Every structure is written in structure tokens, then in C-alpha cells.
């Protein structure tokens, strides 16, 4: 069987049925061991710049305004205006009605415009509404769509509904010129309850054509955790071994410090490998992380921490 739309519902059930159970103790012990790794000064500088380039700078509040989005876009392009060697971030993520503002502010810069869609964050809407939400964001200029799965359907065992919705939203990401916005599928792992469910949801999303699998909306606790991300990295590694298709991973929510980010980068390198050590295949959905990365970057350059007004407060 090949992945994406080419597989039948029976094929999908077969693949999911063949998945082994997750060794919780082993998974958590492996994550804890990876979290103890330390890196030295030169490698740390490289890791910080890599982490900056992997950030999806995000604002998803009811009080968002065009002005806030323009400010966020400026920060995405030049996170440290005093240092032109500081890399830009991977993408700016906003609600669909603000996609056009972000697209205009970023211009032709190589920074993506991501938009949450499909009744974010609950995912509780009829499929035509989810498709319209996606099509509107893509038409406004979104290069990436972050959709949420229907966790109620998943947890009640209606896996085919979840699969078919992902397939349909992926199709809605297509543009008239034949190109397609990349699709990140949010599993909301904090609501899936078990590691077995996380593994099953990861494979289900990849079989349906996800370009990325993402842990969380950031609106539910717990959000991203290192064991869950490790499990998802194992899933994308094994999926590529099985089908020859590479899928990205995005932990989102709760990653706030440079120390945390480095733990995740070590986990990516040790689990999936160097092919995933790029913004094309790994992202951080953690806007508050960027400020700490910038502060730590400045400390490496000057030997001291900058003042509290060194970075903007988003």
C-alpha cells in the first residue's frame, strides 16, 4: 500500500491494526536520558540559530489586530534588529482573517504564512465549514495550514471519519495553479490520553497525507512534552522507512526556554536523524521561546544578559 489518498479504508485499518503498543516506561526513560545531554559553547550557538529558524511565531488571540500581526511579521523577519546575522523564523501563524495582513507584511521574504483552520482549536464543525475555512485561508495567501483533528471522533473509534476529513482538508489546500499549501495536522495529544493513541493518530494523519504532525493547539494542557514528541519522531522515521515519504514534526505549547529547545533538537537528531534537523521538517510552535533564544544568543556574544527591554514582548 502507498500512503495518502491512494490507500483504501481497509488498508488504513490494517496499518493501524499492525501498530505495536507503546512501552511507556521505556519511552519516558529514553526521553529523560536524552534530556540530560549537554552541548558546548560553539555547538550551542549553532543550536540557538537553528532553533530560531524553526520557530513558528504565533498570535492566536481574540484581541489580535492587523497592527499586532504587522509587528509580529517585522519580528519574524528580523528577530534581532541589531544583528543582521540572526536568522529569520520559519513562519508567522495567525487566524484566517489575518492571513492577508501577514502576507502583505512579509512580502516575498522566505518566511511562511501559516493559518490555523478547521474550527481551531476544538475541531468541532461540519466538514463543509472546515473546508471553507481552509480554502479562504489559502486564497488569502497562506502557505501552511494548521488543522485540528476531531478528537471526539477519534476517541470514539470513528477513525475513518478523521482520516477522510484530513484527506478532504488536504485537497482544500490546493491552489488553482496546481501548487498546494502544506498541511500540519494537530493531534491535541493532551486530549488523546495514552501513548498508544498518539502513535495511532500520528500514523492516521500521515496515511491521510499530512505534511507535518503537530502535538497541540497550545490551548490544552498538557501541550508538547518530550516523550510525546519522541514518540511522534519515531513515527515519522518509521513511516518514511515503510513508505519512502518524509513527514515533519511540530511540538507546540509549553516550550519556553533555550534549554528546553536544545533538548528537543537533541531528541530530533538522536531519533529521526539529521534529515529532520531543518525548518522544512521540524518546527517549534512556541512564540515565547523566541525571546529566550535571543537573550541567550546575546549572552554568548557579550558574556552578559541583556536588559529586559532588549527584546519585544509579543
UniProtKB/TrEMBL annotation:
InterPro entries on file: Aldolase_TIM (IPR013785), DeoC (IPR011343), DeoC/FbaB/LacD_aldolase (IPR002915)
Catalytic class of the enzyme: lyase
CDD domains attached to this UniProt entry: DeoC (cd00959)
Alphabetical keyword list: Lyase, Schiff base
Catalytic reaction(s) noted: 2-deoxy-D-ribose 5-phosphate = D-glyceraldehyde 3-phosphate + acetaldehyde
EC number: 4.1.2.4
Alphabetized SUPFAM superfamilies for the sequence: Aldolase
GO molecular function: deoxyribose-phosphate aldolase activity
NCBIfam families from the UniProt entry: deoC
Family membership: Belongs to the DeoC/FbaB aldolase family. DeoC type 2 subfamily.
Name of protein: Deoxyribose-phosphate aldolase
Amino acid at each position: 500500500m502507498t500512503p495518502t489518498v491512494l490507500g483504501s479504508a481497509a488498508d488504513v485499518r490494517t496499518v493501524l491494526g499492525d501498530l505495536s503498543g507503546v512501552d511507556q516506561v521505556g519511552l519516558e526513560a529514553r526521553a529523560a536520558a536524552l534530556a540530560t545531554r549537554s552541548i558546548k559553547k560553539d555547538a550551542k550557538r549553532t543550536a540557538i540559530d537553528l532553533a530560531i529558524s524553526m520557530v513558528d511565531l504565533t498570535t492566536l488571540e481574540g484581541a489580535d489586530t492587523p497592527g499586532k500581526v504587522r509587528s509580529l511579521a517585522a519580528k519574524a523577519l528580523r528577530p534581532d534588529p541589531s544583528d543582521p546575522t540572526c536568522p529569520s523564523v520559519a513562519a508567522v501563524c495567525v487566524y484566517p482573517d489575518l492571513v492577508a495582513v501577514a502576507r502583505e507584511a512579509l512580502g516575498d521574504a522566505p518566511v511562511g504564512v501559516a493559518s490555523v483552520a478547521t474550527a481551531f482549536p476544538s475541531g468541532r464543525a461540519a466538514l463543509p465549514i472546515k473546508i471553507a475555512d481552509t480554502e479562504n485561508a489559502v486564497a488569502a495567501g497562506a502557505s501552511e495550514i494548521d488543522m485540528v483533528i476531531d478528537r471526539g471522533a477519534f476517541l470514539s473509534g470513528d477513525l475513518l471519519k478523521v482520516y477522510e476529513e484530513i484527506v478532504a482538508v488536504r485537497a482544500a489546500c490546493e491552489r488553482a495553479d496546481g501548487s498546494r499549501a502544506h498541511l500540519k495536522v494537530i493531534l491535541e495529544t493532551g486530549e488523546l490520553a495514552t501513548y498508544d493513541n498518539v502513535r495511532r493518530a500520528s500514523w492516521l494523519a500521515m496515511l491521510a497525507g499530512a505534511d507535518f504532525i503537530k502535538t497541540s493547539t497550545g490551548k490544552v494542557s498538557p501541550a508538547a512534552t518530550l516523550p510525546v514528541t519522541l514518540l511522534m519522531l519515531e513515527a515519522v522515521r518509521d513511516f518514511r522507512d515503510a513508505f519512502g515519504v518524509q513527514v515533519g514534526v511540530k511540538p507546540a505549547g509549553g516550550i519556553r526556554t533555550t534549554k528546553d529547545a536544545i533538548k528537543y533538537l537533541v531528541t530530533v537528531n538522536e531519533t529521526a536523524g539529521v534529515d529532520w534537523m531543518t525548518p522544512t521538517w521540524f518546527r517549534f510552535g512556541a512564540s515565547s521561546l523566541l525571546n529566550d533564544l535571543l537573550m541567550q544568543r546575546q549572552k554568548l556574544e557579550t558574556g552578559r544578559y541583556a536588559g529586559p527591554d532588549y527584546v519585544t514582548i509579543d
